[in-house]
């Protein structure tokens, strides 16, 4: 029987359960290797986003921690509903902090694992057979114009990949 349940504890428990559900889905899909590279879910860092294989490896490494954090959040939500008085705040807060610490730790391990995945150098796919930096090596975006700023198309298409090698990582890719 639920004792001492108030509206705020119910809202906090629902939020904890929603986060637990999200991390459980990400954890299961990461463990199965079915989580596709995306901008919103999973471990996302320069090392993990450089290839599908690096993303898959990173999320497979992080999956057990995600599932453990999900369990901690679910237990914290249930405990916050089941206790009397203001103790629910302590249970919810400890569960949230513990889950965030675990996710942070396994994400760091996952990034390190992704960094060990060899990078496949595919060369320049948009240059119609020209070698990188060679004569006639021009990238023409739609409209036939040669861009004056090579970083202008950063992340928008594969054209410009040769001249942008290394430029699109870090803060520019996240903006």
Give a nutshell description of this structure.
This protein is an all-alpha fold and 175 residues long. Helices cover 54% and strands 0% of the residues. It has 2 domains: 7-115, no CATH class; 124-175, no CATH class.
What are the key terms here?
membrane, SdpI family protein, transmembrane helix, 175 residues, transmembrane, mainly alpha, 5 helices, 2 domains, elongated
Description:
With 175 residues, the protein is mostly helical. It has two domains: 7-115, no CATH class; 124-175, no CATH class. The protein contains five helices and no strands. Helix 1 (7-32) packs antiparallel against helix 3 (52-82), helix 1 packs parallel to helix 4 (87-115) and helix 3 runs antiparallel to helix 4. The N and C termini lie far apart (49 Å). Mean pLDDT is 77; it is low at 123-141, 155-164 and 171-175.
Strand composition percent? under 5%
Taking all Cα atoms into account, the compactness measure Rg is 23 Å
Principal-axis shape equals elongated
The counted number of beta strands is 0
Structurally, the number of domains stands at 2
What's the overall average pLDDT, rounded? 77
Organism: Gordonia paraffinivorans NBRC 108238
Pfam families: SdpI
Transmembrane segments: 6-31, 61-82, 88-111
InterPro entries: SdpI/YhfL
């Amino acid at each position: 029987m639920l004792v001492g349940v108030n509206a705020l504890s119910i809202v906090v428990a629902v939020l904890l359960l929603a986060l637990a559900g999200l991390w459980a889905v990400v954890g299961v899909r990461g463990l199965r290797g079915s989580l596709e590279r995306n901008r919103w879910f999973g471990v996302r860092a320069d090392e993990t986003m450089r290839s599908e294989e690096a993303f898959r490896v990173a999320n497979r490494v992080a999956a057990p921690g995600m599932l453990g954090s999900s369990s901690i959040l679910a237990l914290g939500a249930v405990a916050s509903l089941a206790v009397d008085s203001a103790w629910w705040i302590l249970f919810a807060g400890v569960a949230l902090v513990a889950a965030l610490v675990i996710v942070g730790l396994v994400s760091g391990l996952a990034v390190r694992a992704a960094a060990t995945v060899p990078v496949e150098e595919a060369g320049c796919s948009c240059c119609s057979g020209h070698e990188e930096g060679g004569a006639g090596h021009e990238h023409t975006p739609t409209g036939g114009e040669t861009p004056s700023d090579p970083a202008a198309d950063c992340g928008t298409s594969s054209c410009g990949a040769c001249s942008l090698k290394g430029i699109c990582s870090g803060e520019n890719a996240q903006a």
